[in-house]
Amino acid sequence: MQPANRDVRLSAIRDKVEAGQRLSFEDGVHLYENVDLFTLSELANLVRERKNGNNAYYNVNTHLNPTNVCVYRCTFCAFRADLKSPKGYVMSDAQILERAAEADRRGATELHIVGGLHHQLPYEWYLNVVRIIHEAHPRLHLKAYTAVEWDWFQRLTGRPTKDLLAEFKAAGLGSLPGGGAEIFHPEVRDKICEHKADAASWLRIHREAHRLGLRSNATMLYGQIEEVRHRVDHLVRLRELQDETGGFQTFIPLAFHPDNTNLSHIPKPSGLLDLKTMAVSRLMLDNFPHVKAYWVMLGIKTAQVALSFGADDLDGTVVHEKIYHDAGSDSPQELSVEEIRRLIREAGRVPVERDTLYNEVLREDSRWSTGRSLQLLAN
Ligand code: V47
Ligand code: SF4
Which contiguous run of DSSP H or E holds residue 151? Predict the structure, then answer.
């Protein structure tokens, strides 16, 4: 006889996960609402190890936010500044090049470039940022501008985003970061960031980038005003685009940080929600090779535990992070490679340095080169 409280849907979910079959929207909601943390960890770990074995990836990178001045007023954002605000800044070419040179000297393989949509700066200014860095530091991979920025460039120029992406690619663009996705569902998006690129535009721009051979990431901002069904809907929409293009590399769930935002009355997401979201994301996004525990946002301790809840990547050494620190993150500005490797080993995983496109990075003294592709392992 079966116990009266046997969870029939969970048994079906377990069967599907073990057989490598796709979970439905309803399964995703059920995992969030009815399944305990230990079971979530066990199931997500199964998928994580099937795709990435015992490896846990990190990279050596630096952030560059060339301006924080922004025409938009997303309610969750503590980074932006008004045009005339004393907090607002625009970096000069010399400052931008110095940041890139510093990254290069430190042996970084990637520069992550995102910022505000300035009221007065022309399209050419954003293009110039990528061009001058690429000319001076051709080995640095430039992961630059979110779909919201690409949508803004279209509004500035009246030109189709696919032409703009191609122009940037010729100037040295390497890939697209996953920001600006927030929550796709209009019940949430219209309340937290109504004027910027909508879900259809965000997805279209990533589709266009993938068709041009550019890889990209995807994010989800959780723990603000959204409900479980909005999160699961978000994951399903990403999974559908990935079915079509295969161009996404990594999914990054982003925990909302409320300090200094217009949503400062909302408490920070709990550790429980962080780990649940990591696990459900890993289980729903069956066609994404990687799920990242971004330590700057999760905190080092939760990020380390997340390596047992579906995550296989910790992001990077990250220097000069502003978006989360302006919103109250108490994570350090930087982790050394030794610290990241120790955190990974302590979690029982094998640390592997990767470049942005998931090739293994080999280091000898102060020089680095790329080795085998790690992407094949995850597909
Ligand atoms: O688009 C802004 C989010 C994103 C807050 O692609 C906030 O590898 C929480 O996308 N609380 C930018 N989140 C960061 C981002 C990212 C980070 C790390 C790696 C990658 C990648 C991408 O940060 C924004 C927005 O969704 N955000 N303010 C806040 N107060
Ligand atoms: Fe501007 Fe981005 Fe902040 Fe929104 S999240 S206000 S688009 S900088």
Answer: helix 147-157
261 lines ligand 1 (CB under 6 A): yes
CB distance 197 to ligand 1 below 6 Å: no
Residue whose Cα lies nearest atom 23 of ligand 1: it is 179
DSSP one-letter code for 81:
B
Which tens digits make up the pLDDT trace of 62-107?
999 999 999 999 999 999 999 999 999 999 999 999 999 999 999 9
118 lines ligand 2 (CB under 6 A): no
Tell me if 9 is assigned to some domain.
Answer: no
Residues facing residue 368 across a β-bridge: 363
**251, 288 in Cβ contact below 8 A?**
yes
> Which CATH number belongs to the domain containing residue 371 in this structure?
3.20.20.70
DSSP conformational letter for 239? H
- Global model pTM greater than 0.85: yes
The boundaries of the domain holding residue 187 are: 36-378
Test site for ligand 2: of 65, 74, 75, most ligand atoms within 8 A of the Cβ? 74
- Both tokens of 67, joined, read 């301006």
d(CA 237, CA 232): 9
Q: In the chain, how many domains are there?
A: 1
Residue 185 in domain: yes
The reply to whether 4 falls in a domain is no
d(CA 15, CA 250): 25
| pLDDT tens digits, one per residue of 321-343 | 888 788 877 777 788 899 999 99
| 85 CB-contact burial (10 Å; exposed 0-12 / middle 13-18 / buried 19+) | exposed
Q: Is the CB of 179 under 6 A from ligand 1?
A: yes
In a domain, 28, yes or no: no
Nearest CA to ligand 2 atom 7: 72
Is residue 232 classed as helix, strand or coil in its secondary structure? helix
Helix (H) or strand (E) holding 62: strand 61-64
- For residue 327 and ligand 1, the question of a CB distance below 6 A is answered with yes
